[in-house]
Design brief:
Elements (H helix, E strand, L loop, with lengths): L1 H30 L8 E19 L4 E14 L14 E4 L10 E2 L3 E8 L2 E4 L3 E14 L11 E9 L9 E4 L3 E2 L10 E3 L3 E10 L2 E14 L2 H18 L12 H20 L11 H27 L9 H7 L2 H5 L9 H11 L3 H6 L3 H38 L1
Parallel strand pairs: 1-9
Antiparallel strand pairs: 1-2, 2-7, 3-6, 4-8, 5-7, 6-7, 8-13, 10-12, 11-13, 12-13
Length: 404
Amino acid sequence: MEISCLVLMVIIDFVLTSKHEDTLLEHIKEHSTKYSIPNLKDQTVFNGIEMKQLVLINEKENTIVVKLFMETLYIIEGIAWDPSEFGNISQMVFYEQMFWIPDIVIKLISEIPHTQKAPQVIKSNGLVIASAKISTIEFSCNLNVGDFPTDKQKCVIRLEQPWFTETSYNLMSLSPKMGEDEYIENDQWSLKLPVELVETNIVKLNKTLKQQSYNLILERRPKFFRNILVYPTICLCQIATLTFFIPIESGEKFSMSVTILLAQIVNLVVLANNIPTSSQNFPEFGNFVLASISLVSFEILILVIAQNLYYISPKRKPPSMLRRLLYSNFMKKIGLVVESDDIDLQRANLNHANPNPTKVFAKIPKTDKTKEEWQLISFIFERVCGIVYLVVVVVLEIPYFIHI
């Protein structure tokens, strides 16, 4: 008997609830429209955005892909009801479109199909959640990579009222900042949160419309490009200095220099594949790589001159000015010429030790002396250029190394 009464009560409650829902639905239909703007309270539409994920930044195309949660709400005059009069129903949920959805234009390139769309909801106080969805959008952004790989970017998501609608409304934001609940961090870029909102008025066809701008401040995480591009380039510049200390007789000077030059060119190609093709915002690191390529090219020129001096014909005597510099005390003090390399000093020692020095000198051909002098000139030229090269590399690298 008790079970029968309980079942009967459930059936009666279901019938009454269905009746209340049908009555409430008729009431809602009387005060709402599907394709035209309803009687809005204060003629105001509220819009809210939450940043969910920074998906991708395409630096070659100057575009950004983000995932946003967008919500649009408004209040309809005269549609509110007393829940006690309708079976304590405080809200109605519609999985098909029942209410007008405001046209809010987003300045973007394309919209990838949304991953989730929520149903429309109306509250007993007349509040309508007309649209709520997660959308992945792509929009353009002018990227300035002058400070690559420690650059910062400012990109703007703009929303505005359409100018082509006959009835205007006030577009208001739910919050002065973009929401950040459940935001998924990007492994290459960090987003400064919270994202500030700037609201402005624009005039189109004698209509004053509201524009909402969300300023995204992005900062690149530089560790990846430092490790695979910046530090190897700096190391290659330093290794290039070692080619000045490889003996000419080994024949490895040019192969090492050309290998370093090709490696620097590869670094420049890698950089070009990761930045926009812009002449106005060419990165400082790109200038650093170009300077490195120029230095290695100049180094190869120095090595060519040094090798030609080393293998010059012994029949050509060095100019007297070079010979005086070669045997000067200054060269000995700085260590570029040692006592054993001073042929004239050796001859003086032989004159003192031998009563008949003419026979001893006869064993030292004059061509050998000239050859040794040219080789010594080549050695000194190469070492001096190597020191200058090292100073230039240090001066070039230290400011940039501090910057990154």
